[in-house]
Design goal:
The chain has 6 helices and 5 strands, in the order αααβαββαββα. The protein has helices at about 5-20, 25-40, 45, 55-60, 70-85, 135-155; strands at about 50, 60, 65, 100-105, 115-120. Strand 2 (about 60) and strand 3 form a beta hairpin.
Length: about 170
């Protein structure tokens, strides 16, 4: 649960309360409302917290990172690469092994030509990635997927189903 962004932890707790005390329709409306709210939050709040390790092991001078690099480590290597590319090494520290980081999915295509970026505290504005943050993917991974497991067990839907019946 600690590897889930804080807003989603709160959403899950609220959703469980609705499941216990409310109706399926109330839950569907709640999910729609929270998806909208989530999409207005900054990257720092919606990103997955993790620890960085083996950054140097997976770094490759020719290809930036090795094949099979874990997603969040790939994001760390991309962060460090962008610091070098943009000459921001004096303004921001590179991510090192053992540090706490956050990572977020990026929409494709984007200026990094990658699907993820990690960052230590704040996503640098100079990277120009705000408009590429994949809020739908983030929301699905940190809220929808965990909730789906529960809802499948009780037979509830997460969104209004269109019916062909008249």
């Amino acid at each position: 649960f600690r590897s889930t962004p804080a807003p989603c932890r709160a959403y899950i707790k609220q959703a469980l309360k609705i499941i216990m005390e409310g109706t399926e329709q109330e839950l569907i409306e709640f999910i729609e409302e929270k998806r909208l709210e989530f999409s207005s939050l900054p990257a720092e709040q919606i990103s997955f917290p993790r620890s960085a390790s083996n950054i140097t092991k997976y770094t490759n001078p020719q290809t930036i990172y090795e094949k099979g690099t874990p997603l969040h480590i790939r994001g760390c290597i991309m962060f460090n690469h962008q610091l070098k590319e943009k000459g921001l090494g004096n303004k921001y520290n590179a991510i090192n092994d053992g540090e706490k980081i956050k990572f977020t999915y990026l929409k494709q295509p984007n200026i990094l030509k990658d699907s993820v970026i990690s960052f230590p505290v704040r996503l640098p504005k100079e990277f120009g990635l705000e408009k590429y943050i994949d809020y739908d993917m983030q929301f699905d991974k940190c809220f929808i997927e965990p909730m789906k497991i529960i809802l499948d067990c009780i037979g509830w839907q997460m969104e209004k189903q269109n019916s062909l019946e008249i």
